[in-house]
Amino acid sequence: ILNYDIMARFRRRTCIILLLFILFICSIMMALKTLRPDRAGFGDPFGLGLLPELQQRTELLDNKRSSPNRVQGDSITEISNMHAAAVNTMKASVPPVNKLEEELSSPNYNFHVFYYSWFGNPQFDGKYIHWNHPLLPHWDPKIANNYPKGRHNPPEDIGANFYPELGSYSSKDPSVIEAHMKQMLSASIGVIALSWYPPGMADENGEPTDDLVPVILDYAHKYNLKVTFHIEPYKDRDDRSMYHNVKYIIDKYGAHPAFYRYKTSTGRSLPMFYVYDSYVTIPEIWANLLTVSGSQTIRNTPYDALFIALLVEERHKHDIHRSGFDGMYTYFATNGFSYGSSHHNWASLKAFCDTNNLMFIPSVGPGYIDTSIRPWNNHNTRNRVNGKYYETAFNAALVVRPEIISITSFNEWHEGTQIEKAVPKRTGQIVYLDYKPHKPSVYLELTQKWSEKYRKEKEQWLM
User: Fold this and answer.
1) I need a surface site. Which of 54, 122, 269, 373 has the fewest CB within 10 A?
2) What is the CATH number of the domain that holds 236?
3) What is the Cα 384 distance to its own chain's centre?
4) How far is CA 110 from CA 191, 301, 371, 406, in A?
5) Tens of pLDDT along 7-30?
């Protein structure tokens, strides 16, 4: 009997050890997958609102999916949640940065960061804007019914998974604008790619912000930063309205010392415009504006500029070339979500651009999580892994030797891509994510580190 008890205890202990070992191996594998999900597909794209052209095709694909696939998707989400909890227990991976915060870096004008000035609060705007973002329903009503509805209730409950050090701020607050400029400069970022809608227009959850541009330009100039424009897909955007709006921007802001101009290989200094969701408009319409022979051509006029299109699918590269664009960027911070945002495709995209005299501007990001506004989108979360995800993206970008690197984003809090300072916060039943074990400035410090690395490596490329 004694021997039997001993053997039973031994078997029990062995099973427990084996189970813990298997869980450990699973955690490591999931961590590696999160860092570089190279072969990941679209799944249910988080960008339903971001990728309107793809929505119809996605719905058709979803209708073809069998119910077992849906069950599998749910289990993947469950594993992702377990993995997120496991990764958060990992030890710090980013070495401490000893540079004093007050010692601001010199701006690197080849580092561009996407910036949003759409936030508001009662003190400056009479109400909360964007912090009270609604919960977006899934496009499949059956799935949508399983998730909460309504909108967020600031200042304790905001439409973000992280919480800003500056609180639920207003983008009109001069102290906030100045704090942002200081943070960007400390990160050695040189160019602000400002989200822009024409006067009187805004995104569906915001208010017009064009009247804020002069203030942003003034503060940018104070810190030797430059401002370029990230033109959003406003209503009825076509060749004619784009000509009118580019003319408006250059006439109104082009003389400001903070207005960004890029010096081309031919010696010309031209404004630059990122064009979000450019693929929604057919190449023939863009060609009217962007080719020399186009009926609405902007080429060889005082309003000529560099126009950078968003590449999502591989086929878009040919459309971009036919349209007359000067380059492409990838925007999304979710490696594996789209063809363009997948790091392993950047080398072939850069080669295509080099062959066709286009600029390739990869977009790197620190991670992705948008479940505060899209609660059904767990599987597109990319854990930050204490900064490793961000560094992996920078490393992939440097490998292809781009002229410019764009960063998604400075403060897109809804999608958890921000590098702005965030702080731990717990309120009621809400526990926000944070940058621990690092300090709030860790992603600014990592950006500064890679900005310097980029500068040094670029010197070698040019030799």
Assistant:
1) 269
2) 3.20.20.80
3) 13
4) 7, 25, 32, 8
5) 677 777 777 887 777 777 766 666
> 75-81: long-range contacts at Cβ-Cβ below 8 A with a sequence spacing of 24 or more?
76/379, 77/378, 77/379, 79/30, 80/30, 80/378, 80/379, 80/381, 81/378
Q: Is 78 helix (H, G, I), strand (E, B) or coil?
A: helix
Instruction: Spell out, as residue ranges, where the chain has pLDDT lower than 70.
Output: 1-5, 7, 26-104
Tally of domains within the chain: 1
Dihedral class, residue 110 (left if φ above 0, else alpha if ψ from -120 to 50, else beta): alpha
Residue 47's pLDDT is: 44
Q: Record the tokens describing residue 144, joined without a space.
A: 């949508």
Residue 37 belongs to a domain: no
Q: Is the peptide bond before 437 cis (omega within 30 degrees of 0)?
A: yes
How far is the CA of 129 from the CAs of 173, 174, 205, 217, 414, in angstroms? 13, 17, 7, 22, 12
pTM for this predicted structure:
0.82
| Tens-place pLDDT, residues 171-180 | 999 999 999 9
Nearest to 420 by CA among 155, 175, 180: 180
The 3-state secondary structure of 244-287 reads HHHHHHHHHHCCCCCECEEECCCCCEEEEEEECCHHHCCHHHHH
* Any domain includes 48: no
Residues 6+ apart with CB under 8 A from 357: none
Helix (H, G, I), strand (E, B) or coil at 365: coil
- Taking only the tens place, the pLDDT of each residue in 72-84 is 333 333 334 433 4
Bridge partners of 407, per DSSP, are: 113, 364
The tokens describing 36, both together, are 């570089």
**Domain of 455, in residue numbers:** 114-462
